[in-house]
Each structure stands twice: as structure tokens, then as C-alpha cells.
Design brief:
mainly alpha, 3-stranded antiparallel β-sheet, DNA polymerase, domain 1, 2 domains, hpI Integrase, Chain A, single chain, 54% helix
Length: 377
């Protein structure tokens, strides 16, 4: 391998020696000039699949980076970098654009969105910054720009929670009442509410449920976590049978999603947003705080922790990685899938009652009861 490299280097040296110094200097000047006048849009086009991957990961941020965003709410427009030379994509310019974008997004939040708590545009601006850093890194990798300019650019801090995530009994009742009074599909909303409580799943995990994930005879659902891990969770049989019957008469969803509307439209995050908006419109205590379906997960986790301990709460939530000082523990790592299943059944029984019965001890049961089968207590 060394001999081959030596031969290549010798050949390159002979080629360079045959080029007049003036021509070589001119070629280098032309290359530097071409790189200095290259626009960001042209550079991204030259990067091909790499640029397409960034666009797929951050579609909105990618569009704003290239084309900017028009002025609104008395704030100036965010100028795009797409048709400007790469030399304009400096740390100072990128930081100023990110701040302007955050202000525009924050000012454009709707009244109802603002009622859910601090809405500063930090999330959108964070995606903008990450996309910029990624573009900057890939430009350097492709030799279109050196050195990297935006490595130290930081995402803006997001607003923290304005109150505890869990709900009190009265708040849980207010939430259930707000959802069902305003619901256009109360059957689906009751099913979804019970699935949240029984499994402690995240909204995204509920949306990912497919027909094949429902095990009626075994009284279980298979959840796909936010980072891809799969876990089997028990559900009280009457609850699961009610949910299956409710979904059975509905048209199939395009990708066999289990939870779907009356016309077969699969569950989306818009339903979660609607729940939150109904609550904030009807309950004064909720205004100014971020409260949505995730609060049911936190509420159940608090009950599990109170009755069964911290480790059991981590298992109920599907936390399987150890984190020092975090919400997850090494307890769940030591359990096999079989023993995790046994533990989860024991947790469900301790918190909501026997698996062959309906949930017990829910403060909002009287609100849910009119929408349940006649055999429900």
C-alpha cells in the first residue's frame, strides 16, 4: 500500500512540475473566487443528497434559512441566506437571524396557544439553529467552506414548566368534562382517555398504535416508544374490549392505525391540541400553563409512585435507561421482558383494580360513565 501511495505522489509531483507557476496561481485564484461568490442555495444543490437529508429533518427551518420569512406583527422580516454568498453566513448574521425568527414566531402565536403557557418561539428558533449548524458542518465536509463558522451557535433556551405536570382530582375532572362536552367524537375521546390512563403512554405512542398491536385475549397493547423501543403493556380487559368494539365499525385507516375517527382518519396531534384548547377555554386554573394529554401520563405516574414506589413508576412510564438523578432507574434494566410484564400487571392491579374489571378510583368516572357500555359500574 505504501509503494502505491508513493507512486501516486510521484505522479502528482511530475504533473504539478509540468504546470507553469503563473497558470497554477491563476487556477488557485479562480477556485477561490468561485467559492467566495457561491451562494448558499448553489452550495446546497451541489451537496445533493446531504442537503435533501437536512431538508427532510428540518423542513420549515430549511425553507426559512433559504427564503427568509416576511415581516409580521410590527416586526421586521427575517432575511434568507439562499441567494447570498456563503461569506454572508457568519456567526453574527446567523445569530441575528435566529433571534429575529424567534421573535416573529413568538409574536405569531394564536391566543389559544398563548393560553397554554409561555410561547416564545424558542422551539422553532432551536430547529433553525440546529439546521444552520448542520449546513455549516456539511459545507466544511464538502470543501465548500473552511473553517466552520457556526459551531458555537446555541439554541435559545425554552421556557420551563409553569406548574407541576400532574393534575389534582378536581383538575382531572375539569379536564375530562372539557374534553367530552366539546367533543365531536366522544367515543374516540373516551377510548383515548382510558388508554392514556391504563398504559401511561405518550400521545405519540397512542398515535403509533396499529391493529396488530392490540392483543384482545391477552389484554395488552404493544407500544413503540419515542426513541423506538417496544414494550408490551397490560390493559384491563373490559376497557380493551370496549375500545376494540368502538374502533371495529369504523373504516380502516391508511396504514392500519388503530385509533381513528368515524371516517377512518388516523389520530393526529391536532386532537391533543384540541383537548388542550378546550381545557384552557373552560378552566381558569389552566390558563397560562402548558397542560394537555401528557398531564394524564404524569398524573398516573404519580399514583403509581405513591402506591408502588419510584422504580415501579419508571417501569410504568417505559423508562428503560439508567440516568443519574433522572426519572429512570437501573431497576428496569435488570428485568427481563417476562418479568417486566409481570411487574406491569401488578402495577395496574394495584392502581386501577383487577384486570377483569373496570378501572376503580378514577375521580372523573362519573363524567366518563355515560359514554361507556351498560355493564360498566
Amino acid at each position: 500500500m505504501t509503494d502505491a501511495n508513493d507512486e501516486v505522489l510521484q505522479l502528482l509531483a511530475r504533473l504539478l512540475a509540468s504546470v507553469p507557476p503563473a497558470d497554477l496561481a491563476h487556477a488557485l485564484e479562480q477556485a477561490q473566487w468561485a467559492r467566495s461568490t457561491l451562494t448558499l442555495r448553489e452550495a446546497l444543490t451541489a451537496m445533493g443528497e446531504t442537503a435533501q437529508r437536512i431538508q427532510r429533518s428540518y423542513p420549515t427551518a430549511y425553507r426559512v434559512i433559504l427564503d427568509g420569512r416576511p415581516a409580521a406583527a410590527g416586526l421586521p422580516a427575517v432575511e434568507g441566506f439562499g441567494d447570498r454568498p456563503l461569506a454572508d453566513l457568519t456567526f453574527v448574521n446567523a445569530r441575528a437571524a435566529a433571534r429575529a425568527y424567534q421573535e416573529l414566531v413568538g409574536a405569531g402565536m394564536s391566543r389559544k396557544a398563548a393560553g397554554r403557557g409561555p410561547r416564545t418561539g424558542a422551539r422553532a428558533a432551536g430547529h433553525y439553529v440546529i439546521a444552520l449548524r448542520t449546513i455549516d458542518r456539511e459545507l466544511a465536509v464538502h470543501g465548500l467552506r473552511t473553517p466552520r463558522q457556526l459551531e458555537g451557535l446555541k439554541e435559545p433556551p425554552r421556557a420551563g414548566p409553569t406548574r407541576e405536570h400532574y393534575l389534582t382530582d378536581s383538575e382531572e375532572c375539569d379536564f375530562a368534562r372539557a374534553v367530552l362536552v366539546n367533543s365531536r367524537d366522544p367515543e374516540l375521546d373516551v377510548v383515548l382517555w382510558l388508554v392514556y390512563l391504563e398504559t401511561g403512554c405518550r400521545p405519540v405512542e397512542a398515535r403509533r398504535l396499529r391493529e396488530v398491536d392490540v392483543y384482545v385475549s391477552g389484554g395488552a397493547l404493544t407500544l413503540v416508544g419515542k426513541d423506538g423501543p417496544v414494550r408490551r403493556v397490560p390493559v384491563q380487559r373490559p376497557v380493551l374490549q370496549f375500545a376494540v368494539r368502538a374502533m371495529a365499525h369504523r373504516p380502516p385507516a391508511p396504514d392500519e392505525q388503530w385509533l381513528r375517527s368515524r371516517d377512518g382518519t388516523p389520530l393526529t396531534r391536532h386532537r391533543s391540541n384540541a383537548w388542550s384548547e378546550h381545557l384552557h377555554d373552560s378552566a381558569a386554573w389552566a390558563r397560562g400553563h402548558r397542560i394537555g394529554p401528557y398531564a394524564l401520563r404524569a398524573t398516573m405516574a404519580r399514583r403509581v409512585r405513591k402506591l408502588c414506589g419510584k422504580e415501579a413508576a419508571g417501569l410504568f412510564l417505559g423508562h428503560v435507561e439508567a440516568r443519574t438523578g433522572g426519572t429512570t432507574t437501573t431497576y428496569t434494566e435488570s428485568l427481563t421482558e417476562s418479568s417486566q410484564w409481570s411487574e406491569r400487571k401488578a402495577i395496574l392491579r394495584a392502581v386501577l383494580g383487577p384486570r377483569n374489571g373496570w378501572p376503580k378510583g378514577l375521580p372523573e368516572w362519573a363524567i366518563l360513565r355515560p359514554f361507556l357500555p351498560a355493564d360498566a359500574p
